[in-house]
């Protein structure tokens, strides 16, 4: 039976198990990866999801059949695969992970040697075609029945932890001793945190550290309100100076100030950019197009060069390599570092912020309060809709005539004198995403956000069975392209 392979997204692979992603897909993927990239030495790892061991084992069988020697580092964070692929001489690395997606979903994040990402623009489409061919024809990937030899080692975690501690320049002793509440969410972050803690001059309060694919406290996704509440309460109850929480594969961390207030990832981009520019003035900083006014102001004031990049981890990494950028940050709490092979890390951001607080004696609330007042934002608001492309066109048509600037890098992005918004479709989920920001005017922000949501909700068809948003977008793309060919200022 022919598989639709809907699990292939713009920059990684994600799908429900076993409906769109199963062992046969994983095995074919391994074979295709080894063959297409001539990968002869590949490192693999997995997150805590219950489906991850079987999928990772099938992936390893396919890699072996394709001619690759497999090194399996087992349960780990995604950034441990990036570290191994960039510094340990591998031809590629594949992480089996569903990240923050629902528990019945899983996927793969793929990099070549040097931790170079594989995306729709750099080989993922060819892999999809190859996997499709393998699934519908007798092939070595599908007929191999032996269990491949896998070189096993605990991980590269100890040396990675040492590198993290050194890179973050944490003062010993700290000017301000910090107490940090760290919430691993029963994902993979606890593994690295336990390795790092003895190397740091901080007091830690740990929460939900055991990696458990049953997710007894809910899927590790700190963006969910119910997940935020638990971490915020723990920060206040413990008297911590700062809270950090992680998603399932630990490549993103989220911040809370000492009062338990959640800090939007947007404001952390500015903090990290300024901190890194202290050591590399004049460098380029990549930001995504969803919200960026605060980031651009900070980067320019710090002597850096702000550069916009398309949303999504593979796209940001490719843009960073092209620009040789020092750092890249997305409001979704993905943070990328040139010195980490242009990859995203969930550990470096909080280490760098902790280093800054320790060195200066400032509080996280003190660092962010003024910026939040000067550049308020809505946070990302998601809507599941049956007609995403049509709605993007409708919203664009409603506001474009009033805009002073428009860009087409990623979805609909319109800028006005005192506010702007971004409306785009997710690359990994059937969701329309809205972000709004203003210039020091929260009332305006709230009014425009409510107005946009009313327009989106009114235009959405109320039904439960609906087509893939990508299909709607493809149908609307010619009209949208023509309509947005004009730039206004």
Shape: globular
Task: Give the biggest beta sheet.
Answer: 7 strands, mixed
Instruction: Tell me the total number of β-strands.
Output: 22
What is the third-level CATH name, the topology of the largest domain? Alpha-D-Glucose-1,6-Bisphosphate, Chain A, domain 3
Q: What is the domain tally?
A: 3
Relative strand content: 15-25%
CATH architectural name of the largest domain? 3-Layer(aba) Sandwich
Identify the CATH homologous superfamily of the largest domain.
Alpha-D-Glucose-1,6-Bisphosphate, subunit A, domain 3
Overall mean pLDDT: 90
Question: Whole-Å distance between the termini?
Answer: 53 Å
Cα gyration radius (Å): 22 Å
Fraction in helix: 25-40%
CATH class of the largest domain: Alpha Beta
Total of helices: 16
């Amino acid at each position: 039976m022919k598989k639709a392979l809907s699990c292939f997204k713009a920059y990684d692979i994600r799908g429900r198990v076993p409906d769109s992603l199963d062992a046969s897909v994983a095995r074919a993927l391994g074979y295709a990866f080894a063959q297409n990239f001539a990968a002869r030495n590949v490192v693999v790892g997995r997150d805590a999801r219950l489906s991850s061991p079987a999928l990772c084992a099938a992936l390893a069988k396919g890699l072996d059949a394709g001619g690759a020697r497999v090194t399996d580092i087992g349960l780990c964070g995604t950034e441990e695969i990036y570290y191994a692929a960039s510094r340990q001489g591998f031809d590629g690395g594949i992480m089996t992970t569903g990240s923050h997606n629902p528990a019945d979903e899983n996927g793969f994040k793929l990099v070549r040697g040097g931790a170079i990402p594989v995306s729709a623009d750099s080989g993922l489409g060819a892999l999809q075609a190859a996997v499709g061919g393998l699934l519908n024809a007798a092939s070595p990937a599908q007929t191999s029945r032996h269990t491949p030899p896998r070189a096993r080692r605990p991980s590269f975690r100890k040396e990675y932890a040492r590198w993290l501690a050194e890179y973050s320049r944490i003062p010993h002793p700290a000017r301000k001793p910090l107490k940090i509440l760290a919430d691993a969410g029963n994902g993979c972050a606890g593994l690295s945190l336990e390795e790092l803690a003895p190397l740091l001059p901080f007091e830690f309060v740990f929460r939900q550290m055991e990696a458990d694919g049953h997710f007894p406290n809910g899927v590790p996704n700190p963006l969910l309100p119910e997940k935020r509440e638990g971490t915020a309460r723990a920060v206040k109850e413990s008297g911590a100076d700062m809270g950090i929480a992680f998603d399932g594969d630990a490549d993103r961390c989220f911040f809370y100030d000492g009062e338990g207030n959640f800090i939007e990832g947007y404001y952390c981009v500015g903090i990290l950019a300024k901190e890194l520019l202290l050591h590399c003035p004049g460098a380029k900083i990549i930001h995504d197009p969803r919200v960026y006014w605060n980031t651009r102001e900070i980067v320019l004031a710090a002597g850096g060069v702000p550069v916009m990049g398309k949303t999504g981890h593979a796209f940001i990494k490719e843009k960073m390599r092209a620009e040789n950028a020092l750092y890249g940050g997305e409001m979704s709490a993905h943070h990328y570092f040139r010195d980490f092979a242009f990859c995203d890390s969930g550990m470096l951001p909080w280490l760098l912020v902790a280093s800054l607080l320790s060195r200066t004696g400032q509080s996280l609330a003190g660092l962010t309060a003024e910026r939040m007042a000067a550049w308020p934002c809505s946070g990302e608001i998601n809507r599941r809709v049956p007609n995403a492309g049509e709605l993007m066109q409708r919203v664009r048509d409603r506001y474009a005539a009033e805009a002073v600037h428009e860009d087409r890098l990623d979805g609909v992005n319109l800028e006005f004198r005192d506010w702007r918004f971004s409306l785009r479709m997710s690359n990994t989920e059937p969701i329309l995403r809205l972000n709004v920001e203003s210039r020091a005017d929260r009332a305006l922000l709230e009014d425009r956000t409510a107005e946009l949501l009313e327009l989106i909700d009114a235009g959405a068809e109320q039904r439960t069975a609906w087509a893939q948003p990508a299909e709607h977008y493809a149908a609307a793309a010619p009209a949208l392209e023509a309509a947005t060919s004009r730039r206004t200022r």
